[in-house]
């Protein structure tokens, strides 16, 4: 049962991570073209590698550890608040 839960948790983490990443990439493309998408992809990958991405670490562990600061930084850059 615990393995089933872990599998579901890993899948949900992956879907959420991809969804969030796609939102930023769409904004990067609109703002900077395909070069902006490549640059953002490298930036996200570099951050994820800090937390074990590309190793045997499950994606759910990587996304759980990625800093909220990094996500806030991307939000501010790609979804600026206008007042």
List the helices and strands and how they pair.
Elements (H helix, E strand, L loop, with lengths): L1 H49 L8 H7 L2 H11 L5
Helix pairs in contact: 1-2, 1-3
Note down, in words, how this protein is organized:
The structure is a single chain. The protein has 83 residues and is mainly alpha-helical. It has one domain (2-78). The chain is built from three helices and no strands. The mean pLDDT is 80.
What are the key terms here?
83 residues, mainly alpha, 0% strand
Structure described in brief:
The protein is mainly alpha-helical. The chain has helices at residues 2-50, 59-65, 68-78.
Radius of gyration: 14 Å
Largest sheet report: none
Low-confidence stretches: none
The percentage of residues in β strands lies in under 5%
Q: How much helix, percentage-wise, in residues?
A: over 70%
Mean pLDDT: 80
Order of helices and strands: HHH
Q: What's the total helix number?
A: 3
**Whole-number tally of structural domains:** 1
Category by helix and strand content: mainly alpha
Categorize the overall geometry: globular
Separation, N- and C-terminal Cα atoms: 49 Å
Number of distinct beta strands: 0
